[in-house]
Design brief:
By secondary structure, this protein is of the alpha/beta class. It has two domains: 3-48 and 148-299, Rossmann fold (3-Layer(aba) Sandwich), CATH 3.40.50; 51-141, Rossmann fold, CATH 3.40.50. Helix content is 45%, strand content 16%. The protein is built from 14 helices and ten strands. Strand 7 (170-174), helix 10 and strand 8 (196-202) form a beta-alpha-beta unit. The longest helix is centred in the middle third of the chain and has 15 residues, at 123-137. 51% of the residues are buried. Keywords: Pyridoxal phosphate. Residues 14-301 form the Tryptophan synthase beta chain-like PALP domain. InterPro entries: TrpB-like_PALP, TrpB-like_PALP_sf.
């Protein structure tokens, strides 16, 4: 992937996405000892950064492919993103979702006219069901994160943040399947000035951390994390980019994720989901290493079930 491909992607999707705001907080600057700039993808269309990659992937299809629709498997945000992107472009979207996917995210898919096909909550069943729809409907499969056009789309959030603040020294992003952090790392490499990328990852799903340590793709044996958007393992397209361009991955506990989420809600007065809170949790965990630096943080999304908040007391 090249700088020009990333620039072209940004121009291509610009009419279909929001250029999200960048917020600051004097209190969080004081707590961290650093100068923080939050790229608020929780204000993106459908509430998450994944609108960027989904839109780019659809726009790169041929007219024949578009006429037969698209299919993906996703437990949440990419499901909503692909549904809305497809609806915006007049295309049919088939969404394979595990039976235990959050209700708020299923409702979002329905609101955007995506057709939900439920499956058992295993990777094997997700892939098998999506493959069957490909064959039955002639729909084109779009991977939630492990494909070039999606990675490029996700990298456009970091492009915008670096355009607004070109002197950032670090960029923090959450790590799930790796699409966002891979795209962020490419943007920082191409358009940053000595800007290093740091990932935040839950201990409960730390396959990216272990993959970097071992030099080969590792998988998660459990997915026992509140950060439901980060449960998937990194892929064979995202891993090489992460391995080459991400400086470090910092792992955080469930309690640290909840504390970070609560801090953002209370102090910044914005809604973020647990996955979105992981980068700030990672920064605060190792704040002595980043004191005095100018840091960008990608707030990845804000789709939460308000009846199931981790700090809910009533």
């Amino acid at each position: 992937m090249t700088p020009q491909e990333l620039k072209d992607c940004h121009a291509r999707i610009a009419p279909y996405i929001h250029r999200t705001p960048v917020l600051t907080s004097r209190l969080l600057n004081k707590i961290s000892g650093a100068e923080l700039y939050f790229k608020c993808e929780n204000f993106q269309r459908m509430g998450a950064f994944k609108m960027r990659g989904a839109t780019n992937a659809i726009l790169q299809l041929s007219e024949e492919q578009k006429s037969n629709g698209v299919v993906t498997h996703s437990s949440g945000n990419f499901a909503q993103a692909l549904s809305l992107a497809a609806k915006s472009l007049g295309i049919k979207a088939y969404i394979v979702m595990p039976s235990n996917a959050p209700k708020v995210k299923k409702d979002g898919v329905k609101e955007y006219d995506g057709e939900i096909i439920e499956c058992e909550p295993t990777q094997h069943d997700r892939e098998k069901t999506a493959k069957a729809i490909e064959e039955q409907k002639g729909a084109t499969f779009l991977h939630p994160y492990n494909m070039k056009d999606v990675i490029l789309g996700q990298g456009t959030a970091a492009i915008e943040l670096l355009e607004d603040h070109p002197d950032l020294e670090y960029l923090f992003a959450p790590v799930g399947g790796g699409g966002l952090i891979a795209g962020t790392a490419l943007a920082a490499s191409f358009f940053g000035t000595n800007c290093q990328v740091i990932g935040g990852e839950p201990f409960e799903v730390d396959d990216a951390y272990r993959s970097i340590k071992s030099g080969k793709l590792e998988v998660n044996k459990t997915t026992n994390t509140i950060a439901d958007g980060l449960k998937m393992s990194i892929g064979d397209q995202t891993f090489p980019i992460i391995k080459e361009h991400v400086k470090e991955i910092i792992r955080v506990t469930e309690d640290e994720i909840i504390a970070s989420m609560k801090l953002i809600w209370e102090r910044m007065k914005i809604i973020v989901e647990p996955s979105c809170s992981v980068p700030l949790a990672a920064l605060l965990k190792e704040k002595n290493s980043f004191k005095g630096h100018k840091i960008g943080i990608i707030l990845s999304g804000g789709n939460v079930d308000l009846n199931n908040l981790p700090f809910r007391t009533i």
